[in-house]
Amino acid sequence: MTKSEFKTFLQAVPKAELHLHLEAVLTLNGIKKLYKNKFGKEITKQEQKELFSYNDLNGFIQSFLKIQGMYSSVEDFRIVFDELEKYLVKNGITYAEVFFAPTAFLKLGFKYQDMINIFHEKISKIKEKRGITIKLLMDVSRTFGLENAMNNYKLLKQFPCEDIIGIGLGGAESKGPAKDFAPVFELAKKEGFHTVVHAGEDVGPQSIWDSINLLSAERIGHGVTAIQDEKLLSELQKSGLPIEICITSNTFTKKIVQKAKEHPVRTFFDKGIAVNINTDDPVFFKTTLLDEYWICYKNLNFTMNEIKELVKNSFRHSFMNDKSKKDSIKAIDESWKL
To answer: DSSP readout, 6-17?
Structure first.
């Protein structure tokens, strides 16, 4: 099967994406709109080049923060959600759990309630227009420390929004150990929110252990360094704790994975560990969800039946209710016509 044939086939199959950052769906066109709104002029080609010139995780995070700094008002989130809608449709995604990180915008003086009002409006319109369900996970952010993370969580509690179903921990893993954020995650878990953690992306397996034991993570984002710890692999296999796999993203950081064909997702899958496929930051890493599945097929020797299981896992590992999961898996079977 050619890449074009593969992507055409898979686009028509309903899919979920569980590890996707909101700002990372912005195309260059969307970034140009934000820049012009902010500065009243066109972004130069040199600025565009510098924005996407990075070769490690910290460099990427700095570019991510630069783009967040281009927002001039909460109204700019309308541009972002329009871009998100296009991305989801293009990839045949019918359900998405999307990270949003409020810290940078709060520092710009945006009001949290104004942000989530627009989020709810746009999510509702996408659901009505496209039939796509979007849920949000607040990235409380390890980048700015525990106090900031707790303040973010307090806003989540102060201004309830039905679209926000849990919290996540993203940012530079080496600068904010998972264990430092246990108080926030303990509180969120106690108060009924879902919990997911970026761990084992560019720090060793202890970060994953801490996310499990101290943060009660319901899913692990990335988790690639689990390959270094046989005991952890055994624990993941027994517990069924899902790992959100982001192949191109992990290949870019080159901490563990140098080439896509070396990614441990093949080993994880063969050992019976629960894995699902995601992009992380599609625009920043020049990928799409369809591309990530193609990598599984072309570079990691997943059969089409195994690809089908990965697609089903995207719903199984989601925070959808059981009936919605069953309906989505049935829809996969009905559309899977090779």
So the answer is: HHHHHHTS-EEE
Window from 4-18, 19-33, 184-198, 215-229 with minimum mean pLDDT? 19-33
Phi-psi region of 277 (alpha: psi -120 to 50; beta: other; left: phi over 0): beta
The DSSP result for 108-139, as a single string, is TT--HHHHHHHHHHHHHHHHHHH--EEEEEEE
For helices 77-90 and 28-39, give the axis angle rounded to 10 degrees. 180
Q: How many residues does the chain have?
A: 338
Distance in angstroms (rounded) separating the CA atoms of residues 74 and 111: 8
pLDDT of residue 11: 98
Amino acid identity at 9: F
Transcribe 75-114 into DSSP letters. Answer: GGHHHHHHHHHHHHHHTTEEEEEEEE--HHHHHTT--HHH
pTM of the entire predicted model: 0.95
Summarize pLDDT for 80-118 with one digit per residue, the tens: 999 999 999 999 999 999 999 999 999 999 999 999 999
